[in-house]
Amino acid sequence: MLAAEALRLAAIEVLCPTACAIAGAGFPTLAGRRVFDSRAIAIVDLDRSADYTPALALYTPESGVALRGPMAAADDTVADAVLDIVAELAVATEDGEGGFADALPATDPEARLVLVALCAQVRYLLERSQAGLIWRRLVRHVVKIEEQTFAVPELGLRWQRVTMRFHCEIRDDDFGGAGLPEPIASLHAALPDQSYAKAKLAALASHFSPDALPDLGGVTITTGTNSPGAVVDFP
What spatial distance separates the first Cα and last Cα of the chain, rounded to whole Å? Predict the structure, then answer.
């Protein structure tokens, strides 16, 4: 679903605003500019001067659409999507093949508070802030939010990584016009010109070319079984 992809891209703009990315300051979360689209933080993205690097990675693992009910019309649908936001405190880790970025082991209670604060910032920005309005225009309502800490409890292993799962009822794709369908057409128009999300939606538009519907030529109205039809022409 295109609307589900828009849900993720709009969240990226909220969590890492274009104006902040250009200025290099004023970021609304502890992650700063380290907000990644469909990928985890890489070792080159780490702040080597700090004990750990707060980071966010956004994914859209699930989406779907269904009729509102058994007697509903074909366009009377309910759409939903899951937005996964992985918040972590990343560090450089070495193995036999070199270094890579991984979450900090969960042995520092102060670091855990930083991670929880990062998660709280994400939820506030999307659900309550003025900046999050661009995201909430795509969301009919948030059905449920889950937060899961990455762990292997059987082995007593835990990391400073939390996956926030936003289960959302969203607006369905509306293919009624030419070009990008709604709601992503409105999102594209509302985003700043230098926005990462806007560039991705423009790239999506280049891959998506719906058929143009023919113009309505006229309508015939019949008032009775034996009466002639009245024809209304449209120029």
Answer: 36
Tracing tokens 């859209």 back to the chain, one arrives at 60
Half-sphere exposure of 99 (CA within 13 A, CB side): 12
Q: Is the pLDDT of residue 139 over 70?
A: yes
Name the amino acid, one letter, at 15.
L
* The pLDDT of residue 222: 65
Query: Can you give the pTM of this predicted structure?
Result: 0.86
pLDDT in tens, 190-230: 999 999 999 999 898 778 766 666 776 776 666 655 555 55
